[in-house]
Amino acid sequence: MSRDTLLAFLRTGAARSARPFLHCPDGRSFTYGDLDAQTARLAQALQAKGVKPGDRVAVQIEKCPEAVFLYLACLRMGAVYLPLNTAYTLAETTYFIKDAEPALMVAAPDCQADLAKLVPVVLTLDALAHDRFSPVFENSPLAKDDLAAILYTSGTTGRSKGAMITLGNLTSNAITLADCWHFTESDVLLHALPIYHAHGLFVAINTVLVAGASMILLPRFDADAVLDVMKDATVMMGVPTFYTRLLAHPSLNRQSTHHMRLFISGSAPLLAQTHAEWRERTGHAILERYGLTECQMNSSNPYEGERRPGSVGFPLEGVTLRITHPETGIELAQGETGMIEVKGPNVCKGYWRNPDKTALEFRADGFFITGDLGLIDAEGYVHILGRAKDLVITGGFNVYPKEVEDEIGALDGVLECAVFGLDHPDFGEAVTAALVPKPGATLSEDGLLSALQTRLARFKQPKRLLIVEELPRNAMGKVLKSQLRDIYRGLYTHPTH
Ligand code: AMP
Question: Looking at ligand 1, which residue's alpha carbon is closest to its atom 15?
């Protein structure tokens, strides 16, 4: 089979058509033949509604098999897929629509009236998906450099930007990941991630597709539901909170995970303790990898060989990763901490209708500036130390939150923590930590601070350690440090806080 573009893997022919592609917990199942027919019909339905190659199709619907088919139908007919989180407010959705100007939008029935004022054609999935069309469809002749999707970044710094992702980006990353993680036709992916984000949409679905594997599609993460189907799965891709929540479940053990060959984690840092506890309970070493909306995946721990806790492994095949001085852009020596930059067939074309941002975040030699600080250790493993904007500069010293979080996380009774900087009259910024105790643990701020004295240089020690019930996170499990900074603003400058 030609591996030219991802579309080649959708036209699977007789050899694959009877093989399973997707199972739902409600008992519905679809083969690769069904996938071919369903995407063919949806592609024609889009055309019948006037969508042309290059037009954007916005999709804001709950996760279901038909939503997966709609994504792939867009690729087949050459439309640019634009997934939107159903949790967005109308004001947020309006921003994305005005920016992307979709020709058509598929949305829930109760949103139709509001959206109809913004998009030429708005309809429900049911109205789009019907059987009138032929199950055979000739794919649009897309080139690798053609736009396949626009994914808006999570927008933790300013307005969210639309990453322009090409068919070539999708194809190269999917083939690389399927090889890197040893996917085969016998694999069954346990899919509990959202599909409006690169992780659940591209990394999960495209990798399954190029391998000819299948997946169990759960509508959302739920520890009971995940453990129920794990006996039928072989691989799970998750965010770190999947793993911490499963660890809190009494049924997680060697027996309940014995059918699995691989657990993959990404989208946020996996604590070394979570890695260790998971290994202890299940016998599996979680494989951590690193990516971002603009690049899909950049690096991965090895399938064979040491999966190093706290590291995101080696750059993927074909991807070049370098560490540079954040201000000068000059490449740093091995072991030094700086900005992670990447270049490769995975990196997007730039930001939609935003040449200024594109120019700011790409170097002249094509490297993308990720905004993540990191280093490459002596064995070549990449380590992420946090987002550059989360770096704390205290009394003139740089403190990398990850280093402090690792030390706090290793103290008895600590479930999780986040380190961030707050304005301080003497130090400029003060290292501050919010932490959640393990169930049943009684912790005191003074006790924790004194335990850290022997573990961290004085300038890295938090000035305050705030014990909280939970950390603010987004749907991908990323801790929202900007929210923590907002909540505790004035802690040192207005001490009555
Ligand atoms: P997003 O664009 O929403 O996928 O977010 C990408 C960001 O998530 C990256 O720039 C990193 O800051 C973070 N991230 C992704 N994977 C990891 C990981 N394995 N460890 C630490 N941070 C990660």
Answer: 267
Indicate the pLDDT class of residue 1, thresholds 50, 70 and 90: very low
Which atom of ligand 1 is the closest one to the Cα of 293? Answer: 2
> Can you give the chain as a three-state secondary structure string?
CCCCCHHHHCCCHHHHHCCEEEECCCCCEEEHHHHHHHHHHHHHHHHHCCCCCCCEEEEECCCCHHHHHHHHHHHHHCCEEEECCCCCCHHHHHHHHHHHCCCEEEECHHHHHHHHCCCCEEECHHHHCCCCCCCCCCCCCCCCCCEEEEEECCCCCCCCCEEEEEHHHHHHHHHHHHHHCCCCCCCEEEECCCCCCHHHHHHHHHHHHHHCCEEEECCCCCHHHHHHHHHHCCEEEECHHHHHHHHCCCCCCCCCCCCCCEEEECCCCCCHHHHHHHHHHHCCCCEEEEEECCCEEEEECCCCCCCCCCCCEEECCCCEEEEECCCCCCECCCCCCEEEEEECCCCCCCECCCHHHHHHHECCCCCEEEEEEEEECCCCCEEEEEEHHHCEEECCEEECHHHHHHHHHCCCCEEEEEEEEEEECCCEEEEEEEEEECCCCCCCHHHHHHHHCCCCCHHHCCCEEEECCCCCECCCCCECHHHHHHHHCCCCCCCCC
**pLDDT reading at 268 higher than 50:** yes
Q: 432-460: per-residue pLDDT in tens? A: 999 999 999 999 999 999 999 999 999 99
292 lines ligand 1 (CB under 6 A): yes
Q: pTM above 0.90?
A: yes
Tell me the per-residue pLDDT of 388-413, one tens digit each, with 9 for 90 and over. 999 999 988 899 999 999 999 999 99
| Domains of the chain and any CATH numbers | 7-376 (3.40.50.12780), 392-487 (3.30.300.30)
For ligand 1, pick from 267, 287, 400, 480 the residue to mutate: most ligand atoms within 8 Å of CB: 267
Q: Which atom of ligand 1 is nearest to the CA of 387?
A: 12
Instruction: Say if ligand 1 is within 6 A of residue 480 CB.
Output: no
